[in-house]
Amino acid sequence: MEERKKRLRLAIAVGIVVSLTVCPFATGRGQGLVFSAEPGAILQIEFTPDLATLELRTEVPSIIATAVAAGGLESLEGGQLPTYRRVPCGAIDDTICFELCYAGLCNIYGDDEERVQRFMEQVDDIKEQFDKLELARIEAGANVWDTIGTCLKSVGAGFGAAGVIAGIVVAVDPTGILKAIAIGAAALGAFGGLAGCGSAIAGAGSDGEIRDDLVRDFGNAANDAIFEFEDLRRNPPES
Amino acid sequence: MRDSGSTTHATGLLVRLAVWGQMVGYLTFGVSLAVEDSPDIFARADAVEFIWPVLLLVAMHLFKLDRLAARYVPRWLLVVLVLTVSVGTLVASIVGATFAFGIPEALETSGWRYMQSTTSITSAIFALSLVVSVILAVRAYQPSPGTSTA
pTM (2 decimals)? Predict the structure, then answer.
């Protein structure tokens, strides 16, 4: 009788301690990111075209787009990203002028030319995609940690439930079918926790699709900017 | 057959080392995030996310939860749970590493390289934890040397 009471106390202690330790955290922080400030304020990303050299150089943008979509970005020949900056117009008959650069070549054009405006829009889009890519990386890092935490907490909660049920089984000491049902319930509770782990992993896996979309948009914007640059170089606007 | 004390000891060791492995891997990646976000170290994680693993480890050793679990929870259930959570966390960290290494080389920044390093280290820790768990799970079902199987 005394032994039975001792086993009951131990079983309850296992259940309570494990549940109190793990279950309160089993809900997780959710899939969303909690930043303490605006993401942009944390990041302070500086766009440095010299750092990220896109491996693109061709006169046929559609071929590049196809290569980027097929994941062949690295296989193309190297070149720097297109950039622009405002400069004095000099001999050009315009009030606002920009220097457009790509792959070591720089030319100055007035901003009245539509192709120049399109080039600048694409370069701005490149910068935007670059920033989004960096944000996606930061979010993915948090998601990975969250996913690992969700796995540990959900299994821990299931384990706590299993511990409680197993403790009751030991304490009450049922026979035959009742014991089997109780152990089955414990296993079910434990494995139920694993569902949270699986869904969290699936959620983290979708980050890769976001990354691929951003890389594709980045490549497309670069292609369009290069197309305008090459077109302006071969057919310069009449000043 | 193996005596129950030896079996309980082996199962308890499996639980203890598995919990340690998982907590070390989890905290390692959390610290890597905090270091990257420094000085705003809690930008991507609450403080409680760093505290509960430590509390769990302390509670496990203080209340000998590993031994209690080994004694009262069915061994097969413990083994399956330990191996499943070990695989789950390893897969999660590999998903992170795959994401980090999936960026085209031309677009790599220092942040991407940092993530590649940290996810690789975390994956290695979880892989080691899984290997140890598998070995201990096998040992938990093996008869101890010198004991009669009759």
Answer: 0.73
